[in-house]
Amino acid sequence: MPTPAPDGIHKRSLLRDDVYESIRDAIVDGTFGPGERLKDPELEAWLGVSRTPIREALLRLERAGLIVAQPGRATIVTPVDPASTISAQQVVAAMHELAARLAVPSVTGHQLAAMAEANSRFETALGDDDVELALAADDDFHSVFIGACGNEMIPDVLEQALPLLRRVERQRFGSRSGRHSVTVHAEIIRLAGMGDSDGAALASRENWLSLGTEKPDAG
Questions:
Q1: What is the pTM of this model?
Q2: Domain 82-209 is classified in which CATH homologous superfamily?
């Protein structure tokens, strides 16, 4: 797809994270498709920032495996690579397993209610075929354990590994197979409410390891 028309999305004073997130999201949602060349001048015009934050963002995106930079030639959006996706999936699953194990002993009723509310929004979004809202609700659900676990390294690791899975998540939540996660989320909440940190941790891990493996329901 062509680079989006300039929208004045960012002022020069905004953080480099905004630039990174805008390019990352455009890759994840398919605005920039696999194999597409990313050109600095077009990105600068689109985002309204100088080349420096663009280059910093591209370096981060390369480390995340979403682009490959060919020195002196081009910067290209990577295809969805099964091996890389599985590697990222294993890391993300392990981080969520650890977060659940650490968080459950101290999780509050208010936090469990927040997870249940997020899962309800998630189910509604899936029923409405609204992938964006489904992703946001899923993030809200999992962020409860991440925020409560007390390990500040977990979000850093997830920021590195999760973008590679986003393209797979979008496919899953756009199909009937994503409905399975609603049931798994409810089970995680139930186990956490019982204080079963091992059970909640294992259920969280399996939830991420199942990503992309379910077959769509018939009909």
A1: 0.81
A2: GntR ligand-binding domain-like (1.20.120.530)
